[in-house]
Amino acid sequence: MLNTSYTNPSWPIISEEAELNRLKAIKQYSIADTGMEISFEEIAEIAADSCKVPVVTISMIDHDTQWILAAYGTDVRKLPRHQSLCALTLGSPFKSIVIADLKADERLRNHHLVSQEGGYRYFAGFPITTHEGYPIGALSVFDYQPRELDKSQLRMLKMLANQVMNQIELTGKVHQLEKAQQKLEGANHDLARFAYVVAHDIRSPLRNIYSLTQLLEKDDQLGVESLKMIDFIQHSAKELEHLVEGILEYSLAGKNGVNKQVVNIQAIVDNVIELLRPAPEVRIHLQHQAGEVVSDPTLLRQILLNLISNAIRYNNKPITQIEVKSELRGAQWFLLVSDNGPGIDDSLKKQIFEPFKVLTERDRFGKKGSGIGLATVRSLTEKLGGRIVVESTPGAGSTFVLSFPV
How far apart are CA 144 and CA 149, in angstroms? Predict the structure, then answer.
């Protein structure tokens, strides 16, 4: 048995099996070096603001050390586990530990964080627990005076601890995806299959983040800065949702097979324009020599939707000019989508069709690109037996040229 006590028999005792599972979970998530997309410092500040406490810590607790991932009101970044108040939570994965007056608690009155001059008097710890039920850390709040938090504040802190776990899980999945993409570069089939699985795994914690932040917004004790932070978290979650949808689109591209039939290109383009509902300053023209071709209407619509959408999103001119051409050349028919946008440098023309390759950080609407759209276009084009290249002059626009057998 692993006893986390300070030589005190009433301290929580954790079985060896539970401790080993805890440590495996910590290793699995690589929490110490995750580089979280949403800073835990902001969550700590929200907790301090909503509960009006001077000190908040968000910690991971391994075999012998409490690692403080984020803190408000203290510069301490690690403690030996046997000196940690936060380790109290490890004995109760789903219950908070609240001590209104630490000096009134026989177990803790002589603890160095309590007994020293200016020591802590109030402690509330909320375990950060995996979905399997293993506590890997804690969100804790401290005060230098005895006090009580109301039910609303305690509920808020529990929600924030859940938010930390959701973010750890979410970031872990994203990092798995990034590592897989690096290892499988050039093996798009394997990447797509893996991406589909991971993207689905991401959806659950992403939904949890949405739900939690919506509940947090309703708390009238939050200050303006905390509400701004919650808005930032929601915005980041929306961007990640956009990435997940792009990954799923890429991984599913053409998965239902190819159903070729006679297709009217004018009708396909009209349908794409109806779906996009472009602004008045966007002008789309169609010139077609090959008015009807044999292709899969669903895949062709998806190709044009991605190309025309990109031409609108990344255009830097006051008036966006897009031209779609279809023409026959011997035993092939060609589809050309041209724009008057910023163009693409020669050194980047091949890279733009690779998954996750982003040339511009934000589009004209401030939205972050996923780097999936053109990879999907290439995948769908190849499903139809065709190929795609880009012709471009920097500053003078681009033309995507797709060729298919007749």
Answer: 14
By the 8 A CB rule, do 350 and 359 touch?
A: no
Beta-carbon neighbour count of residue 387 at 10 Å? 13
List the one residue out of 311, 316, 327 whose CA is nearest residue 278: 311
pLDDT at 201: 66
**Which of the residue ranges 100-109, 210-219, 246-255, 286-295 would you say has the lowest mean pLDDT?**
246-255
Question: Which H or E element spans position 285?
Answer: strand 282-288
53: nearest Cα among 75, 72, 68, 70: 72
Q: In angstroms, rounded to a whole number, what is the distance separating the alpha carbons of residues 46 and 160?
A: 9
Beta strands per DSSP E along 105-247: 122-129, 135-143
What is the chain's mean pLDDT, rounded?
Answer: 82
First-to-final CA distance of the chain: 73
Q: Which residues on neighbouring strands pair with residue 398, listed in sequence order?
A: 339, 392
The Cα–Cα gap between 245 and 243 comes to 5
pTM of the model: 0.51
Exposure on the CB side of residue 372, measured as CA atoms within 13 A: 23
Domains of the chain: 2-251 (3.30.450.40), 261-405 (3.30.565.10)
- Nearest Cα residue to 370 out of 378, 379, 361: 361
Query: Mind listing the pLDDT tens digit for each residue in 296-354?
Result: 888 888 899 889 988 998 888 999 999 999 998 888 999 999 999 999 888 888 788 88
List % helix, strand, coil for the chain (3-state, nearest 5). Answer: 45, 20, 35
Contact (CB, 8 A) for 364 and 278? no
pLDDT by residue (tens digit) across 25-34? 888 876 544 4
Instruction: Report which secondary-structure segment, H or E, holds 358.
Output: none
**71 beta partners:** 57
